[in-house]
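Per your request, structure below.
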């Protein structure tokens, strides 16, 4: 941090704290994908729980580890060991645009006036965007870091017309110092290439084919078509297959039943496919809590209600006139 810089801790992570870890994670991920879906296409999202060896993953975390050691007391599940297997969550979407916009322009809009979604995703916090989209305040992406034991996530995007993918990562820690050093470090840091501009370094995505391919191989990403892949390393224990599938069904049953969204959740060889044709079977496959706001029977009734609503024709609705107030 610069000597005169204001200390601003990342309190925005509390905005998405309701609903535990999994519900906001699923809601934000699918919301982003629905907003980025190509016209006339079905949004497809895949959640994959996997594992990477410590040796294969080490290059992505070695230089971050001293900073994690400095803030270990604020990590909810403690700092993973350097030789621990990396349990991860990959979230990949298809039939979407990916993070469009100029990836090297550090501004919220492109020269032609269109939104720079790449900038807004990686570099803007608390900045209102297009209110016609499902998300607008620029804090939702914190759920990806919240789901990681080391408060870190990566994004690999491929856009139409690009020759290859663009890879970045972000660690959202707290303002801290390293033992034996006088410097104070800000709460966030990037996995990125850095370009020197005037008096500072600007993070830009890594796009060398060997770097992108190595990352995809280590974390089993399947990005071969335009879209966005999110990778949450050292994913927290609460993020499990059943919890993800339940959240998908509860939060997005309506676009699923309408045929606009298809989701697959998998952990090894046990995939759960959630489409308009399979959602009932998915409800039966998932373990539901015996108490609380949702149960298997309640979800089934909700699906029946939604199907009835989707089956209505325009003339079957009752139009409510607006009331003129003095």
């Amino acid at each position: 941090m610069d000597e005169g810089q204001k200390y601003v801790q990342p309190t925005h992570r509390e905005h998405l704290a309701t609903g535990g870890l999994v519900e906001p994670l699923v809601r934000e991920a699918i919301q982003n994908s629905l907003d980025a879906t190509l016209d006339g296409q079905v949004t497809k999202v895949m959640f994959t729980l996997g594992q990477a060896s410590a040796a294969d993953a080490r290059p992505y975390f070695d230089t971050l580890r001293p900073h994690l050691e400095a803030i270990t007391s604020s990590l909810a599940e403690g700092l993973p060991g350097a030789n621990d297997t990396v349990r991860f969550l990959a979230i990949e979407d298809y039939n979407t645009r990916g993070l469009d916009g100029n990836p090297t322009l550090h501004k919220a809009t492109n020269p032609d006036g269109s939104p720079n979604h790449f900038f807004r995703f990686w570099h803007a916090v608390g900045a209102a965007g297009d209110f016609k989209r499902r998300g607008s305040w620029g804090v939702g992406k914190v759920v990806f870091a919240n789901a990681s034991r080391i408060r870190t996530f990566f994004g690999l995007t491929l856009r139409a017309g690009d020759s290859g993918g663009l890879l970045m990562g972000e660690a959202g820690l707290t303002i801290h110092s390293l033992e034996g050093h006088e410097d104070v470090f800000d709460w966030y840091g990037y996995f990125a290439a850095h370009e020197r501009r005037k008096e500072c370094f600007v993070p830009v995505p890594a796009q060398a084919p060997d770097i992108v391919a190595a990352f995809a191989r280590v974390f089993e990403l399947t990005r071969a078509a335009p879209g966005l892949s999110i990778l949450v390393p050292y994913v927290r224990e609460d993020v499990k297959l059943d919890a993800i599938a339940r959240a998908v069904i509860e939060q997005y049953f309506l676009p699923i039943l309408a045929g606009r969204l298809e989701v697959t959740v998998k952990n090894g060889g046990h995939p759960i496919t959630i489409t308009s044709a399979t959602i009932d079977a998915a409800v039966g496959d998932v373990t539901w809590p015996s108490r609380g706001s949702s149960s298997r029977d309640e979800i089934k009734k909700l699906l029946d209600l939604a199907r009835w609503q989707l089956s209505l024709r325009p003339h079957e609705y009752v139009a409510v006139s607006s009331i003129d107030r003095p």
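The CA atoms of residues 164 and 208 lie 8 Å apart.

Regards,
D.
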